[in-house]
Amino acid sequence: xTGDSVKTRPNPCxxxxxxxxxxxxxxxxxxxxxxxxxxGCMRRYLIRGVLPFLPIFIAFSFxxxxxxxxxxxxxxxxxxxxxxxxxxxSVYRRHLLTANGIxxxxxxxxxxxxxxxxxxxxESKYPRxxx
Length: 131
Fold this sequence. Notes:
The protein is mostly helical and 131 residues long. The chain has helices spanning 12-19, 29-37, 41-50, 54-60, 67-87, 89-99, 109-125. It is flat.
């Protein structure tokens, strides 16, 4: 690695700051785009959301009583957590992009392209007829 090359991946300290909402340097914008919109982005997002609660889930596994009570306590936390993570996924991912100076509309590019292709396919099969 020469002195002229720019760093394109964050170090662990930068990554933690990035996950807490701090922007990364401009040289890492391609990494941010791949992280937020690339393959596996939804999996990474869900894992990052559940990981901070892992100690709580582990602590619940040591509560005295029947196993079904322990699993029930974990489920009472895990189900709403996953639900709200999925509901707020696009908001958080858009925030990560805009905090790093990237257009937040990159989130739905694939979906919009797929919708546009479906619409053009539909219109080619069923053209509008004047009344």
